[in-house]
Amino acid sequence: KSGKLSEAEFHNPSTLTADKNGNIFLSHWRVPYSFVRINEEEDIAELILPGSSTDTKFALGAPTVDANGVVSAISDNGSVYFSFDPNEGWVPRERSIFADNTYTRSTAHSIAAHPVTGMLYTRYYSSGQIIRINPTTREATLEAETVASADSYLVFDPVNDNLLYIAFDNIHCIGVYDLDTKEYRVFAGAAGQAGWVDGPLKEARFNRPSQMIVAPNGNLYVADRANHCIREIVLPDENGDGGMVRTIIGKGGVSGYQDGNPDDALFNNPRGVAVLPDGT
């Protein structure tokens, strides 16, 4: 239900992003498959893509914002994405993805805009293939092969824009792909090992990590879904030193619903996270 923030109603809110003007964009990945713009200053939550209760084409994954403020979110079926341009009043535009024969399409739950080139990147569940989409021509080509049969969420490094981080939901780790060297490796956590451990990147453990987002402070935040908390990934310095994972909101492994300070708050399977320009 649209309206003032105190009147708005949601059903299965899922993943989020925020632009530099304080707009928050929310995807209902499950029914009712809708896309919402939220603005605290305007005191409004409005449907910008009413979607459907039956057509999963409108089940949109984790959204992204490019350097021009255009928001994009890929459909669950992986064949189309929707864009929302502030210069067009956020009118939804359905964009077909024109495939070639270099990759195998399947479901996708995330899309990431390259901060410099504006190219869009997604990753397909079944094949594990990372795909590069030209937002002008909407032609898609194979970028890389990664592990297959895993849900994933993508975000670019805030400093080195050739590094693409990948949160693997059911493999319980964070990977990184280098667009320059074409190399993929596990970045944080251990593939196939679920748990809740803070500490150095290789020693940390996740449990179904979902959406990641870049914060103004240069670090990453991830909704660690089955650990019921929000984690911060402090990136290593230029020498590769100092990378850490720490829990910043919630209690690892403890589900619930409780407001309060970061140590007392409780979540139940958080899937998405976004950061406003002021760090909120």
Major sheet attributes: 5 strands, antiparallel
Distance between the termini: 24 Å
- Poorly predicted ranges: none
Measured on Cα atoms, how large is the radius of gyration?
A: 18 Å
Q: Indicate the multimeric state.
A: single chain
Tell me what portion of residues adopts beta-strand conformation: 35-45%
Strand order of the largest sheet: 17-21-20-19-18
Q: SS-based structural class?
A: mainly beta
SSE series: EEEEEEEEEEEEEEEEEEEEE
Overview of this structure, please?
By secondary structure, this protein is mainly beta. The chain has no helices and 21 strands. It has strands at 15-18, 23-27, 35-39, 44-49, 64-65, 71-74, 80-84, 92-96, 111-113, 120-123, 129-133, 140-145, 152-156, 163-168, 173-178, 183-189, 199-200, 209-214, 220-224, 229-234, 244-249. The strands form five sheets. The chain has a five-stranded antiparallel sheet, with no helix packed on it. A hairpin with a 6-residue loop joins strand 13 (152-156) and strand 14 (163-168). It is globular, with a radius of gyration of 18 Å. The two termini are 24 Å apart. The relative contact order is 0.11. The model has no long low-confidence stretch (mean pLDDT 95).
Summarize, please:
With 280 residues, the protein is mostly beta strands.
